[in-house]
Specification:
This protein is an alpha+beta fold. The protein contains nine helices and 26 strands. The chain has two domains: 270 residues, no CATH class; 98 residues, no CATH class. It starts with 7 loop residues before the first strand and ends with a strand.
Length: 384
């Protein structure tokens, strides 16, 4: 009787500039541990790997027997219990998915023509170029054509120059706004979304906005409302709030009392002091509830751990994971490295992990995919 081998995964995190022998050894070791050829390789590399992409891809293909590769640049990456921040390195996962089919989508127009429309995909892994595809990437199109299907990933990061942000596949560097890899059959993709803020001040309704500029909140100047929210903090929190105040846009309005997790976190990227307008990373709508948020390390750890424990209780242990964490997390949030990865390892054990630091993270809330800021969004993979 023939037997289809089970889904399997292994991952590797190398903290080093590109080095052919080290890459070859790591790739060969992963293939050996996997027990066969990978059906998918997910990769995140620091920007200095750009000049070595052809050699890197060749190692995955020749030494790893990889057929399908999806990867991006990043300013930081994830591994098992460890994270790289602003240093050279590569993170990758080998996944063996014998019953899963794939479709790689590279444009918004192609989403509405996808072959996956005739099926129900497990989910999409998304890597998007923030300079090319707008603040929401392909989320609106995915939500329209694939309602209820999770899309996890985010806006890629890299070095200071435009060419330091890049996407690539087994074909090499790709000239595309984004890569959205649809997975169908043989796998379940359970999303993980964990924010790192708690509400401060009072929730109020946006009464005036245009594009991503908030003109009025509750009929008042937004900056004045922000000053009041800041003034409501205790002295110790006021010091911690410097550079850590964000805008929260309510996901649902039918909430009696808003709590952490009820908002989409948006960075305040500018203030017009002449008339008190606030400029956010993405547009609010008139009538939407807005409450300012304080980024807090303790809240971030608590929310991530609770969400991971809830997933584990319902679904058990995944065989692999893919993460996108806001670049404002890591040392900038916690004051020490590896905290998000340590929590994931504490709850799920040493499951394979790969992923990148983003400048806007994608993940669903109530089965609708949103862009988040300063959050951790992930896909946890289970057998179908």
């Amino acid at each position: 009787m023939s037997h289809t081998p089970p889904n399997r995964s292994v991952s590797c995190l190398l903290c080093t500039p590109f080095d052919g022998p080290s890459i070859r050894e790591a790739v060969s070791s992963c293939r050996k541990s996997l027990g066969g050829d990978p059906d998918l390789v997910i990769v995140a590399v620091s920007s200095d790997y750009r000049a070595h992409l052809p050699a890197l891809i060749e190692h995955f293909q020749i030494d790893g027997h990889a057929r399908r590769i999806i990867g991006s640049s990043t300013c930081g990456s994830f591994g098992v219990g460890k994270e790289l921040e602003n240093t050279s390195g590569v993170s990758f996962s080998f996944l063996r998915l014998p019953e899963t089919s794939f479709e790689l989508i590279r444009s918004k127009e192609a989403i509405g023509k996808s072959a996956l429309l005739d099926s129900v995909p497990a989910g999409f892994l998304v890597m998007a170029d923030p300079f090319r595809c707008g603040s929401q990437g392909p989320l609106r199109e995915i939500n329209t054509h694939f309602a209820g299907v999770p899309a996890v990933g985010g806006m890629i990061t890299g070095g200071p120059e435009d060419e330091d942000l890049f996407l690539f596949t087994e074909e090499g560097r790709v000239d595309a706004d984004f890569l959205a890899l649809g997975l169908c059959g043989g796998i379940r993709m359970v999303p993980l979304v964990a924010q790192g803020c708690r509400p401060v001040g009072e929730p109020m309704v946006v009464t005036g906005s245009r594009l991503n500029v908030v003109h009025s909140i509750g009929g008042r100047e937004p900056f004045r409302v922000l000053e009041e929210a800041f003034g409501s903090l205790g002295d110790s929190l006021k010091e911690a709030a410097d550079g850590n105040i964000f805008a929260g846009l309510a996901i649902r309005e039918e909430v009696d009392e808003f709590e952490a997790g009820d908002f989409l976190i948006r960075t305040i990227v500018g203030v017009d002091l002449d008339d008190g307008k606030l400029i956010l990373t993405s547009p609010p709508r008139v009538g939407q509830t807005l409450q300012f948020q304080l980024r807090n390390a303790g809240v971030a750890k608590q929310v991530l751990k609770e969400n991971c424990e809830s997933i584990k209780a319902e679904h058990g242990l995944p065989f692999s994971s893919f993460l996108c964490g806001g670049r404002g997390r890591g040392r900038r949030l916690y004051g020490e490295p590896d905290q998000d990865s340590a929590i994931i390892q504490e709850v799920f054990g040493a499951i394979p992990v790969t992923g990148f630091y983003g400048s806007g993270e994608f993940g669903p809330v109530a089965e609708v995919n949103f862009r988040h800021d300063h959050s951790l969004c992930g896909a946890l993979f289970y057998p179908a």
